[in-house]
Amino acid sequence: MLNISKTQNDGVLTIELEGRLDTTSAPDLEAVVKSDLDGVKELIFEVRKLEYISSAGLRTFLSAQKIMNRQGNMTVMHPSEEVQEIFDVTGFSDILNIQ
């Protein structure tokens, strides 16, 4: 299960994720990303409470990164050790701005 909460303020969209980002929950996040990026200059994913991310979740991050490359910046904040390891093993730590 994935909980998605978002706040938007002056061109900055913060999406906080809690739980598991996998095949069943990735479409929910993708729908939020696609519907809410108009006019966004800064996209922040707060993932400190994200327990797991699958390849479907990684694809969603990659899709958001491609959009934000055209209109601003994207940052993934505070990944757990487990999620950071997935980013490292898959090479996403070289693609995404992770802090």
Gross geometry: globular
Structural class: alpha/beta
The structural domain count equals 1
As laid out across the biggest beta sheet, the strand order is 1-2-3-4
Termini, distance in Å?
Answer: 24 Å
- Following the backbone from N to C, one meets helices and strands in this order, namely EEHEHEHH
Helix share of residues?
Answer: 40-55%
**How many strands appear in the DSSP assignment?**
4
Overall average residue pLDDT: 96
The largest pleated sheet is described as: 4 strands, mixed
CATH topology: Transcription Regulator spoIIAA
**What is the level-2 CATH architecture name?**
2-Layer Sandwich
CATH top level is Alpha Beta
Taken as a percent bin, the fraction of beta residues is 35-45%
Total helical segments: 4
Radius of gyration: 12 Å
CATH superfamily: STAS domain
Extract low-pLDDT stretches.
none
Structural description of this entry:
The chain has a 4-stranded mixed sheet with strand order 1-2-3-4. α1 (26-36) runs parallel beside α2. It is globular, with a radius of gyration of 12 Å. The protein has a single domain (2-95), classed as STAS domain (Transcription Regulator spoIIAA, 2-Layer Sandwich), CATH 3.30.750. It has helices at 26-36, 55-71, 81-90, 92-95, and strands at 2-9, 12-21, 42-53, 73-77. The longest helix has 17 residues, at 55-71. The protein is built from 4 helices and 4 strands, in the order ββαβαβαα. The two termini are 24 Å apart. The chain is of the alpha/beta class. The mean pLDDT is 96.
